[in-house]
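Notes to self after the call with IL:
- keep both proteins in one doc
- input above output, always
- annotate only the second one for now

Protein 1:
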Amino acid sequence: MKFFKTISIAIALFFIIVLEGCQSKHVQHLASDVCLLSPGVTKQEVLTYLGVPNERRLNEQGNEIWLYFQVHKSFLRKTPFIGDKLGDENYDMVTVTFFNEAVSTCIYRAYTEEQMKEMGIMTPDEK
């Protein structure tokens, strides 16, 4: 009887851990949200549409650049405990450049994990 109780507890803990790894978070839809941005949109409007950027930088001209990332993990990558060694991650990235407090350019592009590392961009999981 004690054996079955121990096994039941172990199975329950296993499912709790698996379900924890499968829980979903609020996800931005950068591919579609970027359509809301056009030259002349203010920083406040960008914050309203896309939220706080993942990273802020200055370009050579001193203009502010905001970077937004969205991570797409493969099914294997989402596996609890061992997922970081399996599968792959791809990233959607939106680069918003400002001039005089308004959007001057907005670029959407998809990257692989290797491309993000080559560019020296820390992904949300690495921070």
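Protein 2 (the one to annotate):
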Amino acid sequence: MNKLITTTLFLVLITLNSCTVKYSFTGASIPPEAKTVSIYNFPNLAPLVNPLLSSELTETLKDRFMAETNLIIMTKQQGDLHFEGQITGYNTSPVAIQAGSDQAQKNRLTITVKVKFKNTFEPKNDYESSFTRYADYESSQSLEAVQGTLVATIVEELVDDIFNRAVINW
């Protein structure tokens, strides 16, 4: 019985090792040849500039790849997977008007990022796309008071979208 279990386990491991696509527990599908990823700084070219947004977005994307893949982050040269882009939108606007008044009950912070992704081994997965996410806040609060929390939430959602589009292939 032990011999049967050992043989079965051995065959399963050989089968998994011979797959042509590298998988992770997060569902990421990365070519087995890919060993590196480069993520260039995302400059903030939005008309309204949050001075911390560029580094927060860039570092959060790098953190995602370090946490959920085995890829090495390249800083001096282009990696097997490569990201570059820019922040193209950062604005706030009213979204809910109070009844009997012309004042907003809620405001919305919206961030848009343009991303160019290149996959050296699977060019069919390359993309150039814009991603937009937003979060609402009460108009009784100033943007400065809620900006840190809102930006962190929106950046996480944007990184989810960028990561998923690149390596989950949605």
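Annotation: Residues 34-168 form a domain with the Double Stranded RNA Binding Domain fold (CATH 3.30.160.150). The chain is about 35% helix and 35% strand.
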